[in-house]
Amino acid sequence: MEVTKIEEIGEGRRVCLDFIDILYSSDGLYIGNTGHGYLKVLAENRESKDYPARPFRINCGSFHQYLYQSGKTYYLHELTPGEKLILSGEEEREVAIGRVKIEKRPFVRVECKSSDGTISATLQNSSSVYLQEESEGEISILDVKEGQKVMGLRDEPGRHLGQRIDEEIVEK
Q1: Are 92 and 86 in contact (CB under 8 A)?
Q2: How far is residue 168's CA from residue 158's CA, in Å, rounded to a whole number?
Q3: Rounded CA gap, 40 and 88, in Å?
Q4: What is the pLDDT of residue 152?
Q5: Cβ-count burial of 25 within 10 angstroms (0-12 exposed, 13-18 middle, 19+ buried)?
Q6: CA geometry: angle at 89 spanning 53 and 96, to 5°?
Q7: HSE-up (13 A, CA, CB side) for residue 93
Q8: Are 111 and 5 in contact (CB under 8 A)?
Q9: How would you classify residue 3: left for phi > 0, otherwise alpha for psi between -120 and 50, otherwise beta?
């Protein structure tokens, strides 16, 4: 997915998922604003200029977003400790959530395009938030520029309680 727009959009509630095991640098979750698709947000297990490594955490961004898991979506704000999620990394693995942490933080909206359309995610504007990038492997959201390619996953919109349904839907 090619990054086409990055804009600061103000403060809101963000969700950090703290897992009960160590996460690898390639571990991440697919997060997005709509059912059109999701961006791969990586674990915070690397030290950034402002934060120490948190090898158990993924900062997933705004609490209204979808989390994609094996054909089903979940709203971030609905996740609870004890739920098991599939992490996408060098190999997929299932790890339980130990804590869901929601706090008010500043956000950026990242829009990306592919030949199939546009997807977006609303992420915390922080040096500890990383995306999987095509040439660099990983990149802090603070360093993402238009024209870069990041890992995304396309999907078809139309969900009811996380399950795919066949209906006409418009999401922006």
Answers
A1: yes
A2: 7
A3: 8
A4: 95
A5: middle
A6: 70
A7: 14
A8: yes
A9: beta
3 state DSSP class of 26: coil
Q: What is the pLDDT of residue 32?
A: 97
Amino acid residing at 130:
Y
Q: In the structure encoding, which two tokens stand for residue 1, read together? A: 């997915």
The residue among 54, 102, 106 whose CA lies nearest residue 78 is 102
Count of CA atoms in the C-beta half-sphere (13 A) of 94: 5
Asked if residue 141 lies in contact with residue 108, where contact means CB atoms within 8 angstroms, the answer is yes
* 73 strand-pairing partners: 68
- Average of pLDDT values for 114-129? 93
> Residue 69 CB: number of other CB atoms within 10 A?
18
Q: Using H for helix, E for strand and C for coil, what is the string for 58-90? A: EEEEECCCEEEECCEEEEHHHCCCCCEEEEECC
Percent of the chain with pLDDT over 70: 91
Among residues 129, 144, 140, the alpha carbon closest in space to that of 1 is found at 144
Q: Are 130 and 49 in contact (CB under 8 A)?
A: no
The predicted structure's pLDDT at residue 157: 67
Which phi and psi angles does 153 have, rounded to 5°?
-135, 120
In three-state secondary structure terms, 25 is coil
pTM (two decimals): 0.90
